[in-house]
Amino acid sequence: MSEYIQGYIERARAAQAAAERWSQEDADRAVNAVAKAVYDNADELARLAAEETRMGRPEDKTAKNRNKARMIAADLSTKKSVGVISRDTASGITEIAKPVGVVASITPVTNPIVTPMSNAMFALKGRNVIVITPHHRAVRSSTRAVELINANLKAIGAPENIVQIIGQHSRENTHELISSADVVIATGGMGMVKAAYESGKPALGVGAGNVQCIVGRDADLAEAVPMIVDGRAFDDGIICAAEQSIIFPAEMEGELIAALAASHAVCLPRTPEVVSALRGALFTEDGMNRHLVGQPAHAVVEAAGLAGVAGLAAANGTDSSACTRVIAVFADGAGAADRLSGEKMCPVIALYPYETFDEAVAIARANLEYEGKGHSVSLHTRDEAHIEYAGLHLPVSRILVNQSAATCAGGSDYNGLAPTNTLGCGSWGNNSISENLTYKHLINISRVASRLPESRFSGFAL
């Protein structure tokens, strides 16, 4: 190990020895200090992230900073994570929470503020320490977030170095860090996630997103479409949980296109030349065109040479309220039949008409098999039979019903998913968890098993 990384690990170990002595109140104060640092400085951190990464919208990042800080703090405030956390007299099991130790966190360019924040909150909730290695294109903004976090932690008397961030970014430093920590959290590209799983340490990673949105025949498009467009447009499309496709009843095509237009989402003409031009701009031989990741709709339009297409002229206008927010395009087929079936990290959404709900689910599954298996699906329907059918047949970890996937798959005020920025995708996405990462994944639990007065299985016979 290099002397540079060894210094981080030694400081972390010393801080861990102090953090292990925390009470529940100490851990909760530290969690709130982290959240408040980002909440109170949401605007500054959003602007800095947008300037440095050249991705997304500052106003959306501000909202994300505030909402995630508030929701995660609220969710963790009611959870026990120190000492005895449960007693079950029926089973005779008492659970005692203990730290996992030094957490190494690889954080992405797409979420350079809230991912370090949330992972730090989860780590400190369990009386762990954390060392963050940010994406090389987000070092300045992530470092500023950690500086503000540490100022708040110092103010409450927390041990020094319980939250650290790597200043010298390199693959070698990241590899040494994750190989020396006790647990690794990898949020970002599949290359880094794979490296985390190969580190020899317990790892918690995420899978690729490609959220399929199914609209039922009973859906109110005036209610559903604005949610879908808001999700696809949020932060210019870099959220992994953002809607990527709309799968809708064929007879509702005209109504859907009108509803999209009302939300400033323009549907491209259904001609091979136009669709091919968009596809060619979005993808290269290596995948998504990196120059369009997190770019606004007008930049996509210009890159595709479609600025003169009817309905898109407003995209270059000066009145932002009239600008095209999302580009909608009919795909030529599901799954491997068209690259538009995959993840598009900019405000472009693919359209797929269907005749039966079974066909809708089949389209969604084909697209997920192509990319994004294990992540999430969005449903806009109140048909409980259809909701259950989708739940039984789609290989995803989350199914959002009548909600914006982009802002709700990572937890929200109105669903029971754990608020987070790290969404596990299970074995489908080559991940170790199939749920939202939270504090419970960063605690060890000792289970005290008392002898029961009677056999649990005395009445069972084969």
Describe the structure concisely.
This protein has helices spanning 3-19, 24-40, 42-53, 58-77, 114-125, 139-155, 171-180, 190-197, 221-233, 253-262, 272-282, 297-303, 357-370, 384-393, 405-408, and strands at residues 83-88, 93-99, 102-106, 129-133, 163-165, 183-186, 203-205, 211-215, 243-249, 265-267, 283-284, 287-288, 326-330, 348-354, 374-380, 396-401, 443-449. 39% of the residues lie in helices and 18% in strands. It has 2 domains: 3-206 and 434-448, Aldehyde Dehydrogenase, Chain A, domain 1, CATH 3.40.605; 211-410, 3-Layer(aba) Sandwich (Aldehyde Dehydrogenase, Chain A, domain 2), CATH 3.40.309.
Task: Summarize the structure in words.
By secondary structure, the protein is an alpha/beta fold. The protein has two domains: 3-206 and 434-448, Aldehyde Dehydrogenase, Chain A, domain 1; 211-410, Aldehyde Dehydrogenase, Chain A, domain 2. The protein is built from 15 helices and 17 strands. Strand 8 (211-215), helix 9 (221-233) and strand 9 form a beta-alpha-beta unit. Helix 3 (42-53) packs across helix 4 and helix 4 runs parallel beside helix 5. The protein is globular and about 65 Å long. The N and C termini lie far apart (56 Å). Mean pLDDT is 94; it is low at 315-319.
